[in-house]
Write a structure and sequence with these properties.
About 5% of the residues lie in helices and about 30% in strands. The chain is mainly β and about 220 residues long. The strands form 4 sheets. Strands 1-9-8-3-6 form a 5-stranded mixed β-sheet, with no helix packed on it. The chain is elongated.
Length: about 220
């Protein structure tokens, strides 16, 4: 149960602590204003439902300005439904009778923009980066392995950093073959992830530890 006072605004930090399932986060009768995504503050975007994929993080602001009552807070999962209760102080201690929807403001990633002016490195146009990588996700049905560019990750016999310290200087020398991409220092790198439909399983976001991306084109947009 999440207790709230009528008239106040509340910041919810929503974290996708899952490996496989995604969740659709809603609060019956309430809109949510996105103000932060994955540690980056954004211009406000109002939604009434929010898909949360594995590892994703959002901050939303909810205005508790509805009738004093109980409202279902739902994270409908691709595996199993989860519910909580948004309870206004002064409401009875009982389950909500609220119903969700209709949802008319679904979340659209293309609407996100940084709150602070963060310039895109280089030229934010397709093919204008110093280095362009095309990573095509796939799945081997015979081996039951996920792949990028027809290469599946395998634990190296020795950690890659130790391989470099021992004298391997080029990605072609590193094991496993095809799993290491060498990026020149202080260059602008463009990564393209085409949706070919060949990768099985639910949606899963890409992330690069320690780095933020400047998204210049989203899926399905020319």
């Amino acid at each position: 149960v999440i207790n709230v006072d009528h008239g106040k605004r509340y910041r919810f930090r929503i974290i996708g602590l899952s490996c496989s399932p995604g969740y659709n986060f809603t609060i019956d009768g309430h809109n949510m204003t996105i103000i932060e995504v994955d540690g980056t503050e954004t211009l406000p975007v109002m939604v009434d439902s929010l898909p949360v994929l594995p590892g994703q993080r959002y901050s939303v602001v909810v205005h508790a300005d509805k009738h004093i009552d109980n409202y279902w807070v739902s994270a409908l999962s691709s595996l199993r439904n989860q519910n909580a209760i948004l309870r206004y102080n002064g409401a009875p201690d009982e389950d909500p009778t609220s119903t969700g929807g209709p949802y008319v403001m679904p979340f659209n990633e293309a609407r996100l923009a940084s709150l602070q002016h963060i310039p895109v490195p280089g030229f934010p146009e397709i093919g204008k980066a110093d280095v362009s990588l095309n990573l095509v996700a796939g799945f081997s049905t015979s081996d039951r392995l996920f792949m990028f560019n027809n290469v599946s990750y395998q634990d190296p016999p020795t950690p890659v950093l130790l391989q470099m310290l021992s004298g391997a200087q080029h990605p072609s020398d590193l094991l496993p073959k095809g799993s290491v991409y060498e990026l020149p220092l202080n260059n602008v790198i463009e990564i393209t992830l085409p949706n070919t439909g060949e990768a099985t399983g639910g949606p899963h976001p890409i992330h690069l530890h320690g780095h933020n991306f400047a998204v210049v084109r989203v899926a399905g947009n020319s």
